[in-house]
Amino acid sequence: MTDLAAGLTPPPLARHVISEQIKPARGLLKRVLPSREPMSDDAVFRLMAIWVVLGTLSQKLSLLLVPGTALQLVLPFEYLLLAILAAGRRLTFSSARLGLLLLFFGSATLVNLITSPTMTSLLYVYAIYIPLVARVSVSEDTYMRYLRSFQILGVFVAGMVFIDWGFQFVHLPMPNMEHFIPAKIKFFNFNYVQALNWGSKWYKPNAFFFLETSYVAQMVATVLVIELCTFQRFKYLLIFVLAEVLSFGGTGFTLVLVSIPIIVIKMRLRLAVAILALTPVAFAAAVQVGLVDNVASRSAEFDREGSSGNQRFMGQFEAIAESLGKSPSDALLGKGAGKMLQNGVVVWTPLTKVTVEYGLIVSAIYLTLLFTSVFGSRVPFVVGYVSVFQYLFLNGGFLVPVNVFTIVMLTSIFQIKKRDGLAKPPPRALDLDRKPPDFLLQASRSG
């Protein structure tokens, strides 16, 4: 046996040649395969910063599974991210969220078997909401660095809004992504091109990559509110305010308005004075571009049945009230998954869809899972607030993956480490960059 093994052993020169030949492949494997050391915070930051851009700007792309049902590419991208984090030994799972997720899935499945014995919609629910239990632990500095990169993405989106209007001002059509992608990979059922008013020659900006104007307006409103409450950089605020005005999106303005109490608490006095001084100028500009008239007309839609404003806001609560008032079984168990009216006009928000189709019991578990995932991650409160509000009440789409992707990428996937044993991180990110007061510096030197 020894002689046989010796006979199969390559001579020294051959071993050297073989070693040199496989060296490039060995180096490639070292880069691809997970190392024994966990991925660094810097690597996590870079990965997350790339992925939030990738997911946000690919939301119009999908794979057609069956006629009428498309899988938004954001969802497989999201699972690929989790796989990379797991390979980098940074992915963990929250046991509390996992318990709530299993309770949500179990109760939804049971209710669905009673009211609507079909699993198609429910399987899609499973796939979209599983990422809520995933998390990666990072330092507060790493998260705030990531949040700054998200603000840069907001600047890019604002720039696309300006480009949309620039094309229209020179009498050219807005850049249209649908002209560049095959119909088979387009995510449908969204109003991508929308006139400013009926018969108007002007169109609301869609920033090329977004599903429709409302998504653009909410994205810009999100970065605007975050900027006002954290970094408070005047040049960024100017860009975001101008882009929000030019978006002509009612949901974006709504998000800013409902965030005013938090903004007032967080805003520095000097910035507040500057904003108050510029308010008359901003109002005059809004009148000139027709924004005030647009807001007034959209506000009047709330009481007009069949209008966009009525369906997006009042119609949601009316649907919930009607379902709860029908019978105890409808109130507790709902009418069944996928049973709400789907005509391409009415957009049901997640809160409405879950309450009406799955009932109060499942809805309560679902909301508990959502709030635990968002506000249990120790990210700044304002980030969780704007994420949850727009998801539940503004953008609609319980089964639209990009809606949950935004929540995951801004809040739930992060678990911020405690700083120096404090129970909570400092309440304002802006204070992290400030120097300590002089009397503290003098006391430390004297000590």
Strand order of the biggest β-sheet: 3-4-5
Proportion in β-strands: under 5%
Beginning-to-end CA distance, first to last residue: 76 Å
Unreliable sequence segments: 1-10, 421-434
* Biggest sheet record: 3 strands, mixed
Mean pLDDT: 82
Helix content: 55-70%
How are helices and strands ordered from N to C? Answer: HHHEEHEHHEHHHHHHHHHHHHEH
Secondary structural class: mainly alpha
Shape: globular
Number of domains: 1
What value does the Rg take, in angstroms?
A: 26 Å
- Structure summary, number of beta strands: 5
Total of DSSP H or I helical runs spanning 4+ residues: 19
Describe, in plain words, how this protein is organized in 3D.
The chain has 447 residues and is mainly alpha-helical. It has one domain. The chain has 19 helices and five strands. It has a three-stranded mixed beta sheet with strand order 3-4-5. β1 (62-66) and β2 (69-72) form a beta hairpin. α7 (140-169) packs across α9 (234-247), α8 (213-229) packs antiparallel against α17 and α14 packs across α16. It starts with a helix and ends with a helix.
Set down the secondary structure blueprint.
Blueprint: H1 2-8, H2 12-32, H3 41-57, E1 62-66, E2 69-72, H4 74-87, E3 92-93, H5 95-115, H6 120-129, E4 134-138, H7 140-169, H8 213-229, H9 234-247, H10 250-258, H11 260-266, H12 269-288, H13 291-299, H14 308-326, H15 328-333, H16 350-375, H17 381-394, H18 401-412, E5 414-416, H19 438-446
Parallel strand pairs: 4-5
Antiparallel strand pairs: 1-2, 3-4
